[in-house]
Amino acid sequence: MRTARLREFLQRYGLVVSFLLLCLVLSLLSDRFLTVGNLTNVLRQSTINLIIAIGMTYVILTAGIDLSVGAVLALSTVVTADLLQRGVPILPTVLLGLTLGGVLGMASGLLISRVKVPPFVATLGMMTVARGLALTYTQGRPITGLPDAFRYIGTGFLGPIPMPIIVAAVAFLAGYVLLTRTRMGMYIYALGNNPVAAHYTGIATSNYITFVYVLAGALAALAGMILVARLDSAQPTAGISYEFDAIAAVVVGGTSFAGGEGSLMGTLLGVLVISVLNNGLNLLNVSSFYQPVVTGVVIALALLLYKALDK
Predict the structure, then answer these.
(1) Among candidate residues 154, 299, 297, 128, the one with its CA nearest the CA of residue 225
(2) Is residue 16 part of a domain?
(3) Residue environment code for 242-262, b if the CB has 16+ CB neighbours within 10 A, otherwise e
(4) Is residue 51 a part of any domain in this protein?
(5) What is the pLDDT of residue 10?
(6) How far apart are CA 174 and CA 178, in angstroms?
């Protein structure tokens, strides 16, 4: 009886406990960890991964995967930056960049939902195409010198809160409401649980599968704009390995690759765990060569724990 209760508690709150313990350990090892400046920096550094991971959560809930988000981020941002340099107004340029990300995601979604190409293959192909187009568009050169009004989303503040945190919070709340308070969210979970049953209950499965890839592409473009605005540089090589960072956060957050199980709250915690872990390693002066190793070990342990708790 006690074992069952402990397992249920760990399934529900294990990640929260792990996150709090990680924060406690780091606060004991470094007196800089719990400072306002450092915690704000952790949140700011986690915004890009969080925005991408929101879209990735939707995709993985349908038992899919999107390997193209990093390349989509690069292509959409270099196009956006180029148009801004040419004097095109900021609002239509940003909307065009988001639309481009969504269109690239739609291409992957249609290949998966209509042509029945496996998600891994379709998005791997899109990753190669988008990265190649980004390099061709810029001839491999970065685009710099962006308008200050555009850079506000990456470097500005709303009161004491950095704008990237505001943008990420709005994206998270919108994604959370859509997933938990709408019929569309219910259908996405149904698709992941049993796509055949979902189809025979009248759900337009192809449309919803396409939608999650459109969302992932648009959110990748949004994350890229924050990155470019902060660095004042759009590079065709930006976003490399970002897809794996997002997948790691989603998996650590408890979303199942089998689909139909997971939540955005779990993804948020997964992003924070990885961001806090990386920040703590930096504060402790751990070599950057070892940091991916530590992160990989944490992800592997999380997967093993979830598997053990599901038995």
Answers:
(1) 154
(2) no
(3) bbbbbbbbbbbbbbbeebbbb
(4) yes
(5) 66
(6) 6
Nearest to 277 by CA among 296, 263, 260: 296
For tokens 């029945």, name the residue: 116
Query: 19: closest CA among 309, 304, 300, 269?
Result: 269
Please check whether residue 217 is in contact with residue 69, taking contact to mean a CB–CB distance below 8 angstroms: yes
**Structure-token pair, residue 37:** 């400046």
Copy the structure tokens of residue 194: 């049993």
Please report, for the domain that includes residue 73, its CATH number.
1.10.3470
Structure-token pair, residue 212: 């999650």
Please answer whether residues 68 and 123 qualify as being in contact, where contact means their C-beta atoms are separated by less than 8 angstroms.
yes
Q: Is residue 213 part of a domain?
A: yes
Domain tally, the chain: 1
pLDDT score of 92: 97
Mean pLDDT by 10 residues, the chain (311 residues): 68 80 92 94 96 98 97 98 96 97 98 96 98 96 95 94 97 97 95 88 93 98 97 95 93 89 94 92 86 78 68 57
DSSP structure class, residue 143 = E
At 305, is the secondary structure helix, strand, or coil? helix
Spatial contact of 273 and 22, defined as CB atoms under 8 Å apart: yes
pLDDT tens per residue, range 197-256:
888 888 899 999 999 999 999 999 999 999 999 999 999 999 999 999 999 999 889 898
Three-class secondary structure of residue 136 per DSSP: helix
Cβ contacts of 2-8, under 8 Å, gap ≥ 24: 7/309
Domain that holds residue 132: 46-310
Q: What is the pLDDT of residue 290?
A: 82
Residues listed for the chain: 311
Global pTM value: 0.95
Residue 104 maps to a domain: yes
